[in-house]
Amino acid sequence: MLGKTGVLIVNLGTPDTPNVPDVKKYLREFLMDGRVIDIPYANRWLLINLIIAPFRSPKSAKVYKELWTEKGSPLKIYGEANEKQLQEALGNDYVVKLAMRYQNPSIEKGLKELQLMGLSKIIVVPFFPQYASASTGSVYEEVMRIIGQWQIIPQLKFVNYFYNHPKFIKAFADNGRKYLDKGNYDYVVFSYHGLPERQMTKADCTGNTCKLGSCCDTIHAFNQHCYRASCYETTRLLVKELGLKEGTYTTSFQSRLGKEPWIQPYTDHVVKELAQKGVKRVLAYSPAFVADCLETTIEVAEEYREMFEEHGGEHWQLVESLNDSAPWIDLLTDLVKEQEH
Ligand SMILES: C=CC1=C(C)c2cc3[nH]c(cc4nc(cc5[nH]c(cc1n2)c(C)c5CCC(=O)O)C(CCC(=O)O)=C4C)c(C)c3C=C
Ligand SMILES: [Fe+2]
Ligand SMILES: [Fe+2]
């Protein structure tokens, strides 16, 4: 095994089953993460255990049951496929392990397996195109917590983001182009997972803070880890690749939780406004996710479609994510190899 490199691919996580106790367990672990609900521990504990877990779990379980396939949760099925595909693409000099930040297979299990192989280098690839403290940052914190206890700390590399990688942009653009070429769409919505505004305005490592305004209109040395700026840049790059005209697309943020303000505009508001303005045919991108999951298959493809049609829209189509496609594996291979320099 000496000389091999370990590759830990990490996605967010999903419940073990769509039943209420497993969904509750998943939500508890996820939302008790101080990078996800960033309030003092005691307040977070009360909020999660007395309000969110008991009341949200039955509702979420219902939706997970709708999402579930014979083989399980799509997020995990695609992750398992990616583990095999990437192993094949990288060959024998690498050992690829899949991990989930929450629930199973855990980061602890994946790292332990790599540790037992005596690898001298580990590359961590979180499956989040845009950096956020609540996603990528949380994966790193967990990796460092575990590896920090080891006697021998291997050489460690992290892929912080890849929203601007030309192969990421091309893969998503190609997925959408096949609809645009045939479908006579009059509008494209780029909907990203949202974040609480409070998290955006915390100072980054350079001391800069996002002002939730025009500071996100360009990407530069001081805002490369700004989630909002990275989302807007993802849209700009996709728009350029697709050749969309000004006034025919917009960026918005979905999946908010709780009563505090999250980054805006909210996708549900945008969906209603577009339908009410007379827009009839919309192509919807969700480029914060590399695998179709609850947030794309149910929220974007079903809930927003129903909302759009209820308010006068005629056709709403989700662009599928990268899932187990060859261009995604090609991009993952590049992301790993780029860490070897
Ligand atoms: C794009 C990366 C993600 C960020 C950033 C993120 C932040 C974030 N999420 C919540 C709350 C929930 N998210 C849920 C599902 C979910 N979130 C992501 C990704 C990011 N979340 C994915 C890929 C998924 C789907 C998982 C699946 O099993 O398919 C859920 C659970 C679903 C539900 O009950 O509605 C919650 C809750 C917060 C609060 C947050 C940042 C503060
Ligand atoms: Fe989320
Ligand atoms: Fe900003």
Automatic annotation (TrEMBL):
SUPFAM superfamilies found in the cross-reference section: Chelatase
Catalyzed reactions: Fe-coproporphyrin III + 2 H(+) = coproporphyrin III + Fe(2+); heme b + 2 H(+) = protoporphyrin IX + Fe(2+)
EC number: 4.98.1.1
GO function terms (MF aspect): ferrochelatase activity; metal ion binding
CC terms in the record's Gene Ontology section: cytoplasm
Entry keyword Translocase: no
Location(s) in or outside the cell: Cytoplasm
Binding sites annotated in the UniProt record for Fe(2+): 193, 295
Listed GO biological process terms: heme biosynthetic process
First-listed, main subcellular location of the protein, grouped into a coarse class: cytoplasm
Keywords: Cytoplasm, Heme biosynthesis, Iron, Lyase, Metal-binding, Porphyrin biosynthesis
Family under the similarity heading: Belongs to the ferrochelatase family.
Its biological purpose: Catalyzes the ferrous insertion into protoporphyrin IX.
Name by which UniProt lists this protein: Ferrochelatase
Source organism of this protein record: Emticicia agri
Top-level taxonomy: Bacteria, Pseudomonadati, Bacteroidota, Cytophagia, Cytophagales
GN (gene name): hemH
